[in-house]
Amino acid sequence: MAAKISFFNEDLSYTVKQKGELRKWILGTIRQEGYSCGDLTFILCSDAYLLDMNIKYLNHNTLTDVITFDNSETEGLIEGDIFISIERVAENAKLFNVSTENELHRVFIHGVLHLLGYEDKGEENKARMTLKEDQYLALRSFV
Questions:
Q1: Residues 6+ apart with CB under 8 A from 127
Q2: How far, in Å, are 71, 81, 134 from residue 49 at the CA level?
Q3: Is 1 a residue whose pLDDT tops 90?
Q4: Inter-residue contact 26 to 112 (CB < 8 Å)
Q5: Which DSSP helix (H) or strand (E) runs through 10?
Q6: Is residue 103 within 8 Å of residue 64, measured between CB atoms?
Q7: 39-80: pLDDT as tens digits
Q8: How many CA atoms lie within 13 A of 55 on its CB side?
Q9: Which residues pair with 5 in a beta bridge?
Q10: By three-state DSSP, how is residue 46 classified?
Q11: Considering just the CA atoms, what is the radius of gyration of the chain in Å?
Q12: Helix crossing, 100-115 with 123-137: angle to 10°?
């Protein structure tokens, strides 16, 4: 199965820059972790849209920057839908004093890491996830 990485918008308009380079970087991350990529969809949306999903599917009544749905049915192959709130990403970028684009890339890879089996609940898991995010962000050749 050929990898297919797509980007869509829901409830807002946002243009992802350098899609080709992003796809290569995301695929490289997946391969470096020993997996293959099937259909991977990133859906960029508003806070309201993602909050509604968080309530409906996860019973969490909180704002979040990313929700990941794993659609994989084959061992070693990742597939899924990653919903990202552009409003949360922009606010977090200001909070962490980084560009919105850099924070968006962190959230892209955060969602991918969830599909690869990484968790971020608990201090140890969160620290491990952040290290992995930093590792793969450092490998980008297009920023």
A1: none
A2: 20, 14, 28
A3: no
A4: yes
A5: strand 4-10
A6: no
A7: 999 999 999 999 999 999 999 999 999 999 999 999 999 999
A8: 9
A9: 40
A10: coil
A11: 14
A12: 120
Amino acid at 6: S
The residue behind tokens 């994989």 is: 72
- pLDDT of 143 over the 90 cut: no
* Tokens found for residue 7: 């980007």
Q: Rounded to whole angstroms, how far apart are CA atoms 10 and 50?
A: 10
pTM over 0.85: yes
CA–CA dist 140, 19 (Å, integer):
13
Three-class DSSP category at 7: strand
How far does the chain reach from its first CA to its final CA, in angstroms?
29
